[in-house]
């Protein structure tokens, strides 16, 4: 004879119904649920405009500061340095912007927001992918402001509008794929501060030890070898070729391949780690 009480049996049945409903979620429903979560994240951004401070101020400050400080020393003058630097700032800005994805995810988990999703028959990936879709707006703002500031300072991209748009699109795709890494970090870290610290330790060395701000030929041999291997350098070179010459080189293919590899590895890891909290 079962000793389970009626409330306990009802709880078990409710959990079974939720689990069964989740197993029946179709691809179309997953897309709709992801877009719903993206809309929720956009509404959250509207109510918290400070989330746009980094994407609005960082491109302007970094472009003006780096061009003024390093332009004369590296290229002889600011205008000659801009074709080298602006695509590098584009890559740096978009990649550092995607760090906020994991931090905000961890904050939501600490506040118990994701506990509300436990009883919902939704796709497991929707609460993760939704905010990342909304973050595409932040990447677009950051990338656009980077080129806008470069134009104000005298940058004239030889690739024209088409090359610039292609460079921005490539940077956004890369930022979105890399955000899966920080999403995974957000699901395993103990606090939002820990997510931010870990993300900075991962991304800042990769960004600054690249060809974003200096030619590889000016670096010591051992450092030049690392810079050439660094995936951020492939992104920077690809965006330079697109923005300055409207040329699609093999660097674009390498960058897209790296994006695919990151998504294939870290999207399942993020979902699996997230399910442990469900």
From TrEMBL:
Q: Which Pfam families match?
A: ABC2_membrane
TM segment ranges: 52-75, 81-101, 136-155, 161-182, 194-214, 252-271
Question: What is its membrane topology?
Answer: Multi-pass membrane protein
Ranges for domain ABC transmembrane type-2 come to 50-277
User: Which keywords has UniProt assigned to this entry?
Assistant: Antibiotic resistance, Cell membrane, Membrane, Transmembrane, Transmembrane helix, Transport
Location(s), subcellular: Cell membrane; Membrane
Q: Which PANTHER family does its entry note?
A: NODULATION PROTEIN J
Family statement: Belongs to the ABC-2 integral membrane protein family.
Task: Provide the protein name.
Answer: Transport permease protein
Lineage, uppermost ranks: Bacteria, Bacillati, Actinomycetota, Actinomycetes, Streptosporangiales
């Amino acid at each position: 004879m079962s000793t389970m009480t009626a409330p306990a049996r009802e709880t078990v049945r409710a959990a079974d119904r939720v689990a069964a409903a989740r197993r029946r979620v179709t691809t179309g429903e997953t897309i709709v649920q992801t877009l719903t979560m993206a809309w929720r994240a956009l509404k959250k951004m509207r109510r918290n405009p400070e989330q746009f401070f980094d994407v609005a101020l960082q491109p302007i400050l970094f472009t003006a500061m780096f061009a003024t400080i390093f332009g004369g020393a590296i290229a002889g003058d600011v205008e000659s340095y801009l074709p080298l630097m602006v695509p590098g700032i584009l890559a740096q800005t978009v990649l550092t912007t995607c760090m906020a994805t994991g931090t905000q995810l961890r904050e939501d988990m600490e506040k118990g927001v994701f506990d509300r999703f436990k009883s919902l028959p939704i796709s497991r990936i929707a609460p993760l992918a939704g905010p990342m879709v909304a973050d595409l707006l932040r990447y677009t703002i950051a990338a656009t402001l980077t080129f806008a500031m470069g134009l104000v300072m005298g940058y004239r991209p030889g690739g024209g509008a088409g090359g610039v748009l292609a460079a921005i699109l490539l940077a956004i795709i890369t930022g979105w794929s890399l955000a899966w890494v920080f999403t995974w970090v957000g699901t395993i870290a103990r606090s939002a501060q820990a997510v931010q610290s870990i993300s900075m330790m991962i991304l800042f060395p990769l960004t600054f030890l690249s060809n974003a701000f200096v030619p590889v030929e000016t670096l010591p041999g051992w450092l030049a070898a690392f810079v050439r291997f660094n995936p951020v350098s492939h992104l920077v070179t690809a965006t330079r070729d697109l923005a300055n010459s409207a040329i699609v080189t093999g660097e674009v293919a390498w960058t897209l391949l790296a994006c695919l590899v990151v998504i294939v590895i870290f999207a399942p890891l993020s979902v699996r780690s997230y399910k442990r909290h469900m």
